[in-house]
Amino acid sequence: MQHGSGARRPSGERHDFPHTPQGPGRTTPQLRPQKTVRRGTEPVTARSDLELRRLLSRIFLVLFAAGAVAFAVLAALAAPGPVPNQGTYAFFAALCGGFAGLAGLDLVVIRRRLAAGQGRDRGDAPGTTSGLGSAARPDADRRS
Length: 144
What we know:
The chain is mostly helical. Helices cover 43% and strands 0% of the residues. The protein has three helices and no strands. The protein has helices at 42-45, 50-77, 86-115. Helix 2 packs antiparallel against helix 3 (86-115). The radius of gyration is 33 Å and the shape is elongated.
């Protein structure tokens, strides 16, 4: 049988991909069971400990700001010459200043998230035994 431009296939013969088995004794392949599909809800349901982030950002803001000041003073006092020189200290001062800026930006983001109510309530934190919902809080709305 020739497979040129004018060749015809016998009726019932299929050449599509993937090949579907035809005829006696041929079965379609069974699909393997798939694991559960990840739905992508992690960003919606994930919670970070905003209080811990705020504490760490405050600590590192102070440390990096102090480091930037210290390296700036060293850069001002250093003489041009072999390493470490003014350029080296100025680079480290700028690096510490950049990290201090990132810590400050993180504090702004944390403040905004806490104001939006995205932080965990003290009573709803894991490990607490209160288990009382918003109805037990004194500031909960009561409808009559």
